[in-house]
Design goal:
It catalyses: a 3-(all-trans-polyprenyl)benzene-1,2-diol + S-adenosyl-L-methionine = a 2-methoxy-6-(all-trans-polyprenyl)phenol + S-adenosyl-L-homocysteine + H(+); a 3-demethylubiquinol + S-adenosyl-L-methionine = a ubiquinol + S-adenosyl-L-homocysteine + H(+). The chain is of the alpha/beta class. The chain has 8 helices and 8 strands; from the N terminus they run αααβαβαββαβααβββ.
């Protein structure tokens, strides 16, 4: 791939204004565990468990350490109001959060200040912010909302430092996800209507190909499934949602 192609991909617009506006309207309710982001509050501990294990494995950390990200720069892309950024900061990371909706980053900054956490938040298009490189890049439930998935993957790769770790989670495009995550969850009020568009979901194989084109290699993929008895949990079933790690080739 030519340098011109890479430059065009990393500078392409990925933000959909209607998506940014949708999530911006939810900003003030984001930290309410019984509000519109209830499912994210339930999902967050599962994602954090995976991320912590991935950090320990990737950098051979002491699993008993409370600060495995000490001395590491962390970028959370599509950070919302900071549900993931704050725990990553508590793990010792120097965290930067980026989101398409300025309403989200404003609420995130206020919440971090109240929690006495030093997190840098900035709204805007990732490829145009000039943020540099990061040891850990995360993007949770974001790629299904972007305008250009390939350009988004190039932007993530461009911000990942040599030897760094990328973690992405997203819904899978299956009949099960359409029935449960879109038609079911939105109909029951568990997720705000208009949050998900099933046609924009991406399969693990498709995402791996996009990351490969961006110069990254997927190193681990786990499913995030639901059990009536145990709730959301990591496992082999990727029919609803999945989370993966990747690194530079």
């Amino acid at each position: 791939m030519s340098n011109a192609t890479v430059t065009n991909a990393t500078s392409s617009t990925t933000i959909r204004p209607d998506e940014a506006a949708h999530f911006g309207k939810l900003a003030r309710d984001w930290w309410d565990p019984k509000g519109s982001s209830t499912m994210l509050h339930r999902l967050n501990p599962v994602r954090l468990g995976f991320i912590r294990d991935a950090i320990d494995l990737h950098w051979a950390c002491d699993v008993e350490s409370a600060n495995p990200l000490a001395g590491k720069a962390v970028l959370d892309v599509g950070c919302g109001a900071g549900l993931l950024a704050e725990p990553l900061a508590r793990l010792g990371g120097a965290v930067t959060g980026v989101d398409a909706a300025p309403e989200n980053t404003a609420v995130a900054a206020l919440h971090a200040e109240g929690a006495d956490l030093d997190i840098r938040y900035t709204p805007g298009e990732l490829g145009s912010l000039g943020l540099g490189h990061f040891d850990l890049v995360t993007s949770m439930e974001v790629i299904e909302h972007v305008a250009d998935k390939q350009a988004f993957c190039f932007q993530l790769a461009a911000h990942l430092a040599s030897g760094g770790l990328l973690v992405i989670s997203t819904p899978n495009r299956t009949l099960a996800s359409r029935a449960l995550l879109v038609e079911g969850a939105e109909a029951l009020g568990m997720v705000p209507r208009g949050t998900h568009h099933w046609d924009d979901f991406i399969t693990p194989e498709e995402l791996a190909e996009l990351l490969e084109a961006a110069g990254l290699t997927v190193t681990q993929t786990r499913g995030i499934g639901f059990s009536p008895l145990k709730g959301l949990q990591l496992g082999e079933d990727m029919s609803l949602n999945y989370i993966l790690t990747a690194r530079h080739r």
